[in-house]
């Protein structure tokens, strides 16, 4: 409602079932998700960060600082781009951690970030 204030919202469980199945399948096959053609809107820098996220293999992590070094930027700028990511499962910002390896910042909560990483590592 916040992003699309004029949209008319209505439930359609049957109509969305196939789409939902495809999205959930990405959890089991993250390497396939990295190959999907996505129409993602963001600044040129956000696009670079989001592309870099897709190169992090499932089950592995990178620090904000490592990504910033790779992109010749600042860790806070990378963190802001990650926070702007609206499709977390397909642009895996959950694979980015603090410099000490601890979980930090995740748009959908640290518990979900932890669970996604655990699932990928198992």
Question: Secondary-structure map with pairings?
Answer:
Layout: H1 13-28, H2 30-33, H3 44-54, E1 62-63, H4 64-71, H5 75-83, E2 96-97, H6 110-121
Helix pairs in contact: 4-5
List keywords for this structure.
single chain; 49% helix; Arc Repressor Mutant, subunit A
Question: What is the global morphology?
Answer: globular
As laid out across the biggest beta sheet, the strand order is 1-2
What is the highest CATH level, the class? Answer: Mainly Alpha
Helix fraction, binned, reads 40-55%
Rg from alpha-carbon coordinates: 15 Å
Which percent range describes the beta-strand content?
A: under 5%
CATH architecture: Orthogonal Bundle
Tally the helices: 6
Strand pairing plus helix content: what structural class?
Answer: mainly alpha
- Name given to the CATH homologous superfamily: Winged helix-like DNA-binding domain superfamily/Winged helix DNA-binding domain
Can you offer a commentary on this structure?
It is built from 6 helices and 2 strands, in the order αααβααβα. The chain is mainly alpha-helical. The protein has a two-stranded parallel sheet. Helix 4 (64-71) packs across helix 5. The longest helix has 16 residues, at 13-28. It is globular and about 45 Å long.
